[in-house]
Amino acid sequence: MAHYKQGPDPKREQFRRYLEKAGVVDSLTSVLVSLYEQQEKPNNALEFVKQQLGAVGKTSEDAEALQQEVINLRQKCARLAGENKELKAKLQRYESVPEDGGTAN
């Protein structure tokens, strides 16, 4: 059976576009360039690639977790600032009351 070279396979092209759109091609290229640029090549290139890709994946997860933590801390800070303001106002009211327990006129 002869295999004739025709145009690019539409399924392959669709899959290639899918990988490009998802950032897979860029991530793999970046990892391979990093491996190429290593002065001392690692003994296990596959493990190097896995570690680099793992770090890439964790970065976005870590960033999301950190962004959520920032949101939570900002909300807590705003809540505490409001509470602080209320407590200062109460303290000022108590400080303005004379020590003998009478009302100020």
Automatic annotation (TrEMBL):
<dbReference type="GO" id="GO:0005634">
    <property type="term" value="C:nucleus"/>
</dbReference>
<dbReference type="GO" id="GO:0003713">
    <property type="term" value="F:transcription coactivator activity"/>
</dbReference>
<comment type="similarity">
    <text>Belongs to the AMY1 family.</text>
</comment>
<keyword id="KW-0175">Coiled coil</keyword>
<protein>
    <submittedName>
        <fullName>MYC binding protein</fullName>
    </submittedName>
</protein>
<dbReference type="InterPro" id="IPR026060">
    <property type="entry name" value="AMY1"/>
</dbReference>
<feature type="coiled-coil region">
    <location>
        <begin position="56"/>
        <end position="97"/>
    </location>
</feature>
<keyword id="KW-0539">Nucleus</keyword>
